[in-house]
From TrEMBL, chain A:
Protein EC: 6.3.1.2
Reaction(s) catalysed by this chain's protein: L-glutamate + NH4(+) + ATP = L-glutamine + ADP + phosphate + H(+)
GS catalytic domain segment(s): 106-356
Protein name: Glutamine synthetase
Domain GS beta-grasp residues, every copy: 19-99
Tagged with keyword DNA-binding: no
Gene Ontology biological process terms, A to Z: glutamine biosynthetic process
Automatic annotation (TrEMBL), chain B:
Top enzyme category: ligase
GO molecular function, one term: glutamine synthetase activity
Highest taxon in the source lineage: Eukaryota
Keywords: ATP-binding, Chloroplast, Ligase, Nucleotide-binding, Plastid, Transit peptide
The protein's name: Glutamine synthetase
Primary location group: plastid
SUBUNIT field: Homooctamer.
Ranges for domain GS beta-grasp: 79-159
GO CC terms of this entry: chloroplast
Catalytic activity field: L-glutamate + NH4(+) + ATP = L-glutamine + ADP + phosphate + H(+)
Native species: Liquidambar formosana (Formosan gum)
Length: 356, 432
């Protein structure tokens, strides 16, 4: 057993220049992450210098068997916290051999929106609050919950400590350090209102990197829960009843919103979002209707409502922002299983490019 | 019992930039420190120390420990700051963390933050933001490196302390000139009970039954007398690492009950250090799979309760002739007995019965070396004519901000009427 441990943790930098690159992509469901590794001849810091690769799309529901190759284009590099040394994680997106993005590739369109000159000029920042639930492996019941029963009602668990209130902290803490090591812009963590549920925040990130960073953070999280023998769930309403759901609140600001007088720009942006409520909701994650009920700190899915410091609203503006007359706002509608490429680019498109 | 030593400058330790040598208590070491009980053949205890979610069944090695103990200082300047605050019940601790761009030395360098007060019973849903003001920094024994724990207090967005914020008023009292001049020292003896997780029955007690009566357990060793020493020991080192002024530990009279002492600390720091030590203790019990209880009378019947005796002295008391100042202080305390008792912890009436080394809750009494009194003065203090007093009334779930500031207020700032004073002096046989 110790030999296996020594081998996994071998630091190769003394023996060879070669590094291991783990290519990561999003599979056919739009939510499942896949990865495989290859050797690269020397350390690389620019994704453009990495070779394109391919995989068997028929095994992930992304291509038919007779024409199964899907091409991987490397887009972002992070340090590998599992292999360390000079080894890397590579976030990729997916194309046909002819060079067209396959239907599940949402990054391509997002990148187009984020390279539009009007969007580039406004330097859009995103801070994404990813909530998730940890489940016991064989029974798919949240960790810390008694089998066949329920824990005491919500109240003591939010940011709580103690063996009867916080379940799975080691996963959360190792994830925090692993992301900092990898170079992901992780800004904080906290225990959530439902026991066994946690949250981490990534940001502020500019434009397309918000999506890249969040997807790699999700990858690292699922690799860690794999080690811990626990199941990761991004379901927006894992347990029915008087239990909170899981969201991915997206904080957003542009240059004009951050400058003096930005509050007016914020209010205009919120108005535009209100006019496109249905389109956004449709893109904000599967199963969100089970979560956005109007209770448990959400706004009802059919209503668009905004307010200062109001956690029961669709969009919340912080007191700081109201007081300073500039800042950012929080879109509380996205579910925990949203695609950050879709959500970030859609918010930018609606607020900056769309003219009603 | 706390001995008053000169306050060490330990509490002044700040985080230095080159603490790459500083190692946290590795999860592995904590794991090996953890008490693994063999239940084969004995029906003694079913407590099972498990570190939750660290078990991995199909992989043959566990790589999560490496990640938990990862020292990120070679890769980034960023540090993790765990902001800690007191929740809506006044005794529940909450925390969440954020990344800070580089190591800090002083709380004023840290940004204010906010949290969802509607989830802790401290704000309504439509106006939920509660603001956190950083007040004291300690090194983080769980994350190591340059990472920190930050004790905060809580305010409305308008800048008013919210009702559960007791630190604010205490800080005001401790900055008033008369109190500052008297340099008040506090030594707080925090007792606590460890409970098995699923049954809420004390650690080491047979489920559905009781251990042998009190007698053998106080400061004892042995598998049949001492339950949970690893938690107490891990906590001791973790607090020393963090920079908390922890001065000692001991096993208590009731089996499964322990005590540690924090002090001597000056003024507001007593509260900050005790709250941070409680946070570290509950994080450790969380890892050990054991429940921490600060209830003042966890088990009814012929079992000790849990208190938080507060040792106290002022400059005048510590100087020659200080015994007179101590007697005057006791006199003042006797006249405000009801006010103090109501602020000394919920449920204290179940503990202060007059038995089990307590004084009855309705009576104020004092004595030298007398553990059945409200206030006890040590033999050393009586002999030397100077020293300190021990207020034995506070319960284990007291708020140290309230208790320390109330002691300072009653003995330094408050003055009784002359008639009341004379009457009390007679009653207590004090010639002041």
């Amino acid at each position: 057993m110790s030999l296996l441990s020594d081998l996994v943790n071998l630091d190769l930098s003394d023996t060879t220049e070669k590094i291991i690159a783990e290519y990561i992509w999003i599979g056919g469901s739009g939510m499942d992450l896949r990865s495989k590794a290859r050797t690269v001849s020397g350390p690389v810091s620019d994704p453009q210098k990495l070779p394109k690769w391919n995989y068997d799309g028929s095994s992930t529901g992304q291509a038919p068997g007779q024409d199964s190759e899907v091409i991987l284009y490397p887009q972002a590099i992070f340090k590998d916290p599992f292999r360390r040394g000079n080894n890397i994680l590579v976030m990729c997106d997916t194309y046909t051999p002819a060079g067209d993005p396959i239907p599940t590739n949402k990054r391509c369109n997002a990148a187009k929106i984020f390279s539009h000159p009007e969007v580039v000029a406004e330097v859009p920042w995103y801070g994404i609050e990813q909530e998730y639930t940890l489940l016991q492996k064989d029974v798919k019941w949240p960790i810390g919950w008694p089998l066949g029963g329920y824990p005491g009602p919500q109240g003591p668990y939010y940011c709580g400590i103690g063996a009867d209130k916080a379940f799975g902290r080691d996963i959360v803490d190792s994830h925090y350090k692993a992301c900092l090591y990898a170079g992901i812009n992780i800004s904080g963590i906290n225990g959530e209102v439902m026991p066994g549920q946690w949250e981490f925040q990534v940001g502020p990130s500019v434009g397309i990197s918000a999506g890249d960073e969040l997807w790699v953070a999700r990858y690292i999280l699922e690799r860690i829960t794999e080690i811990a023998g626990v199941v990761l769930s991004f379901d927006p309403k894992p347990i029915q009843g008087d239990w909170n759901g899981a969201g991915a609140h997206t904080n957003y600001s542009t240059k004009s919103m951050r400058n003096d007088g930005g509050y007016e720009v914020i209010k205009k942006a919120i108005e535009k979002l209100g006019l496109k409520h249905k389109e956004h909701i449709a893109a904000y994650g599967e199963g969100n209707e089970r979560r956005l009920t109007g209770r448990h700190e959400t706004a009802d899915i059919n209503t668009f409502l905004w307010g200062v410091a109001n956690r029961g609203a669709s969009i919340r503006v912080g007191r700081d922002t109201e007081k300073a007359g500039k800042g950012y706002f929080e879109d509380r509608r996205p579910a925990s299983n949203m695609d950050p490429y879709v959500v970030t680019s859609m918010i930018a498109e609606t607020t900056l490019l769309w003219k009603p | 019992m706390a001995q008053i030593l000169a306050p060490s400058t330990q509490w002044q330790t700040r985080i230095t930039k080159n603490s790459a040598n500083a190692r946290p208590i590795p999860a592995k070491m904590l794991g090996s420190l953890l008490f693994k009980q063999n239940t084969k053949g004995t029906a003694r205890s079913t407590s099972n120390f498990r570190v939750f979610a660290m078990k991995s069944e199909n992989s043959t090695i566990n790589r999560m420990e490496d990640l938990l103990n990862l020292d990120v200082t070679p890769y980034t300047n960023k540090i993790i700051a765990e902001y800690i605050w007191i929740g809506g019940s006044g005794i529940d601790l909450r925390s969440k963390s954020r990344t800070i761009s580089k190591p800090v030395e002083h709380p004023s360098e840290l940004p204010k933050w906010n949290y969802d007060g509607s989830s802790t019973g401290q704000a309504p849903g439509e106006d939920s933001e509660v603001i956190l003001y950083p007040q004291a920094i300690f090194k983080d024994p769980f994350r190591g490196g340059n990472n920190i724990l930050v004790i905060c207090d809580t305010y409305t967005p308008a800048g008013e302390p919210i009702p559960t914020n007791k630190r604010h008023r205490a800080a005001e009292i401790f900055s008033s000139k008369k109190v500052v001049d008297e340099v008040p020292w506090f030594g707080i003896e925090q007792e606590y009970t460890l409970l098995q997780t699923n049954v809420k029955w004390p650690l080491g007690w047979p489920v559905g039954g009781y251990p042998g009566p009190q007698g053998p357990y106080y400061c004892a060793a042995g598998a049949d007398k001492s339950f949970g020493r690893d938690i107490s020991d891990a906590h001791y080192k973790a607090c020393l690492y963090a920079g908390i002024n922890i001065s000692g530990t001991n096993g208590e009279v009731m089996p499964g009950q322990w005590e540690y002492q924090v002090g001597p600390s000056v003024g507001i720091e007593a509260g900050d250090h005790v709250w941070c030590s409680r946070y570290i203790l509950e994080r450790i019990t969380e890892q050990a799979g054991v429940v921490l209880s600060l209830d003042p009378k966890p088990i009814e019947g012929d079992w000790n309760g849990a208190g938080c005796h507060t040792n106290y002295s002022t400059k005048t008391m510590r100087e020659d002739g200080g015994f007179e100042a101590i007697k005057k202080a006791i006199l003042n305390l006797s006249l405000r007995h009801k006010d103090h008792i109501s602020a000394y912890g919920e449920g204290n009436e179940r503990r202060l019965t007059g038995k089990h080394e307590t004084a009855n809750i309705n009576t104020f009494s004092w004595g030298v070396a007398n553990r059945g009194c409200s206030v006890r003065v040590g033999r050393e203090t009586e002999k030397q004519g100077k020293g300190y007093l021990e207020d034995r009334r506070p319960a284990s779930n007291m708020d140290p901000y309230i208790v320390t500031s109330l002691l300072a207020e009653t003995t330094i700032l408050w003055e009784p009427t002359l008639e009341a004073e004379a009457l009390a002096a007679q009653k207590l046989a004090l010639k002041v």
